[in-house]
């Protein structure tokens, strides 16, 4: 790369965890000086979509929300109130946060929400029907919704407290002042940064100035972009797509610059690739981009390739970038124990800064800052709320359970969704909360108790045993085990530990589970007859493909609207595969679009089966042939070892026992025993082929 070009480029965002401070500092510095040259597309930002959450606070503020992640089942830790780590102790002293500046999105709704004074925040609780609830326009709110005015609507006898609260919480009322505040903060940071790296950059400045002068003197008009394009190479293509940790002699900064440039090239509509490296095709540039994203963000190239294919190049980059920052901390008010407005008030009393999650939820709160560990407050311990990712509300909203129904939650631990279903059922009806991992059912049970759910039965089966265990449910939720490609910001190990085989095995398991979910529904249910399928993964293999498979195998089901107000339509076709048209009714959620975990939701209506159709028969055959998969204790998906038996030995034993039985009856057998299993009957692995229609029972397997 030409030196001139290098100096004039803005420095890249470094690989997280490598040299963040320095790079972010110098990036700011550079942006003050000179805007980086870029293609039209690579600077495109993705607008916040409807339903998206507010951007989290800057990192130094964000740290102050200490959570105990329920998804990590670390409940024991959560139940240790009063033990503060050093970090936590520090946060207690922190002044309350000011909102406003973090509204980086240009989304209208978001800007409007943000600029609204706190006074006008509306909290609505589904379970409370009392009071004259009017919205900001003075119209009556729908039944169960409340206009929540923190200043003007204190609970009985709490006026004094509320006045104080109002003061604490007036932080959102003067946005201009806040903006100034935040600007000052940022300026301070930048000044520090300036001085920290002044000498290095002074040198650079001097060099750049010299070069500029030279150019002016020579009367040369340079087009920087062209200069760059001429100097880029595609090393990954040159080495035949082989993975390499990091190219020798190439800094991450250079990788990032090339990556952003490649985004523009890949997006360009020009068939001649005039913007790219001469002689190289679009797929060559795509391959290099895949390698650069993998290098820069620390993924294996296989996964990058898989995820990149979901998006246009610029959106793919936005997706990978969004995986580098945490999603907002959100909690769900437990309406079995409290109302959202009361919970909000109680937490505000503790210095927590929060807001309703968005108009789409009546129970969600987004926590911006907390001086206390949010997973160990007295309200948390008393079960007034669940720490729950916003995306995890969605399948339950789609399931929409009705009072007195029987609901099956097939894979339920640690119970975020189970306890939400229980609240929506208002503790009526029955929920079977199943999970195949016994250890995880402990945290599930603990959460059920903490949240005061009295309508839940915990069970511990492989969900593929349903509906044999019990069936006839009004609604079934299958929040399936998945690869977690939607939650990489929470679990970075996904970046490197997934192979194509994992995706195949998971999809296979998910397909088995979805058929069991459908078969567990009572198609005659007077109130329901629905299955919701969800995953926290964004791959098509685990989502649309599974849904399409279910539609093909079970002609008695159809997809219906999820009832979710936002989200992107599911793919109707992908990489040459066409799915059923109705697959567009499914919904995808993305971190870069909705500021929540990547998620997928599909809702099926189950009708009566007409008769044993071909697909049913096919399915039954499949069940005999399917390899049994399970998650091991580390959460890895593995094939269950099929207990092998020796057919020759079995055959001889059977014959011997028959002979003995007949002998007892006084019948003497003269004929020769049947020949044992022939070579042809044996599979390569030494197992005996079981004729279709006959099952090898567990008992028989365990004999050996
Ligand atoms: C995505 S998590 C469920 C999260 C849960 N629904 C919640 O909201 O808290 C998937 C769960 O599936 C369970 N699981 C994996 N394989 C299973 C199987 N064959 N049958 C039942 N559960 C299974 C895992 O133990 C894990 O708890």
Automatic annotation (TrEMBL):
Biased composition (Basic residues): 691-704
Main subcellular localisation: nucleus
Location within or outside the cell: Nucleus, Nucleolus
Active-site residues per Swiss-Prot or TrEMBL entry: 536 (nucleophile)
This protein's record includes keyword Glycoprotein: no
Binding site for S-adenosyl-L-methionine: 411-417, 435, 462, 479
Record keywords, A-Z: Methyltransferase, Nucleus, Ribosome biogenesis, RNA-binding, S-adenosyl-L-methionine, Transferase
Recorded superkingdom: Eukaryota
Pfam hit, one: Methyltr_RsmB-F
Sequence ranges of Acidic residues compositional bias: 124-136, 150-230
NCBIfam families attached to this UniProt entry: nop2p
Name recorded for this polypeptide: SAM-dependent MTase RsmB/NOP-type domain-containing protein
Lineage: Eukaryota, Fungi, Dikarya, Basidiomycota, Agaricomycotina
């Amino acid at each position: 790369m030409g030196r001139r070009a290098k100096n004039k480029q803005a420095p890249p965002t470094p690989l997280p965890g490598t040299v963040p401070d320095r790079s972010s500092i110098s990036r700011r510095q550079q942006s003050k000086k000179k805007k980086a040259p870029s293609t039209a597309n690579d600077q495109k930002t993705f607008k916040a979509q409807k339903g998206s959450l507010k951007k989290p606070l800057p990192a130094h503020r964000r740290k102050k929300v200490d959570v105990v992640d329920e998804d990590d089942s670390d409940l024991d830790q959560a139940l240790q109130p009063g033990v503060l780590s050093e970090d936590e102790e520090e946060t207690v002293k922190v002044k309350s946060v000011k909102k406003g500046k973090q509204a980086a999105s240009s989304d209208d709704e978001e800007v409007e929400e943000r600029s609204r004074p706190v006074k006008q925040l509306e909290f609505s609780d589904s379970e409370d029907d009392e009071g004259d609830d009017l919205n900001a326009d003075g119209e009556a709110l729908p039944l169960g919704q409340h206009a929540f005015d923190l200043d003007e609507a204190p609970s009985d006898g709490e006026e004094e407290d509320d006045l104080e609260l109002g003061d604490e919480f007036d932080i959102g009322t003067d946005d201009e002042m806040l903006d100034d505040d935040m600007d000052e903060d940022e300026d301070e940071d930048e000044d520090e940064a300036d001085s920290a790296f002044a000498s290095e950059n002074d040198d650079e400045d001097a060099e750049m100035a010299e070069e500029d002068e030279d150019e002016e003197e020579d009367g040369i008009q340079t087009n920087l972009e062209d200069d760059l394009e001429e100097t880029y190479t595609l090393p990954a293509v040159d080495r035949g797509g082989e993975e390499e940790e990091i190219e020798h002699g190439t800094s991450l900064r250079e990788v990032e610059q090339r990556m952003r440039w490649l985004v523009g090239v890949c997006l360009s509509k020009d068939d001649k690739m005039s913007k790219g490296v001469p002689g190289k095709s679009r797929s060559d540039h795509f391959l290099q981009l895949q390698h650069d994203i993998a290098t820069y963000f620390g993924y294996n190239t296989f996964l990058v390739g898989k995820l990149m294919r979901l998006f246009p190049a610029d959106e793919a980059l936005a997706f990978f970038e969004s995986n580098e920052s945490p999603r907002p901390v959100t909690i769900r008010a437990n309406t079995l124990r409290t109302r959202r407005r009361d919970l909000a008030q109680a937490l505000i009393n503790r210095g927590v800064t929060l807001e309703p999650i968005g108009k789409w939820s009546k129970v969600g709160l987004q926590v911006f800052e907390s001086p206390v560990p949010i997973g160990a407050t007295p309200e948390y311990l008393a079960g007034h709320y669940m720490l729950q990712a916003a995306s995890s509300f969605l399948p339950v909203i789609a399931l929409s359970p009705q009072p007195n129904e029987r609901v099956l939650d097939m894979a339920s631990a640690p119970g975020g969704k189970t306890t939400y279903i229980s609240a929506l059922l208002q503790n009526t009806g029955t929920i079977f909360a199943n999970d195949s991992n016994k250890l995880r059912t402990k945290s599930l049970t603990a959460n059920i108790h903490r949240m005061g759910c009295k309508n839940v039965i915990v069970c511990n089966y492989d969900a593929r045993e349903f509906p044999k265990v019990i069936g006839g449910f009004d609604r079934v939720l299958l929040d399936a085990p998945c690869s977690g490609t939607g939650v990489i910001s929470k679990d970075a190990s996904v970046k490197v530990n997934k192979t194509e085989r994992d995706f195949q095995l998971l999809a296979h398991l998910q397909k088995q589970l979805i058929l069991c979910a459908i078969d567990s529904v009572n198609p005659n249910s007077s109130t329901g007859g629905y299955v919701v399928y969800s995953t926290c993964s964004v791959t098509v293999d685990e989502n649309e493909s599974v849904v399409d498979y279910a539609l093909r195998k079970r002609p008695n089901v159809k997809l219906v609207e999820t009832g979710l107000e936002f989200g992107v339509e599911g793919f109707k076709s992908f990489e040459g595969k066409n799915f059923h048209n109705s697959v567009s009714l499914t919904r995808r959620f993305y971190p870069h679009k909705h500021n929540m975990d990547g998620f997928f939701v599909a809702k099926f209506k189950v009708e009566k089966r007409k008769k044993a159709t071909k697909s049913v028969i096919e399915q039954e055959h499949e069940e005999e042939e399917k390899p049994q998969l399970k998650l091991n204790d580390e959460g890895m998906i593995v094939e269950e070892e099929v207990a092998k038996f020796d057919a020759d030995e079995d055959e001889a034993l059977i014959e011997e026992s028959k002979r003995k039985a007949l002998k007892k009856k006084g019948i003497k057998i003269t004929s020769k025993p049947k020949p044992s299993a022939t070579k042809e009957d044996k599979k390569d692995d030494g197992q005996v082929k079981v004729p279709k229609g006959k099952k090898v029972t567990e008992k028989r397997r365990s004999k050996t």
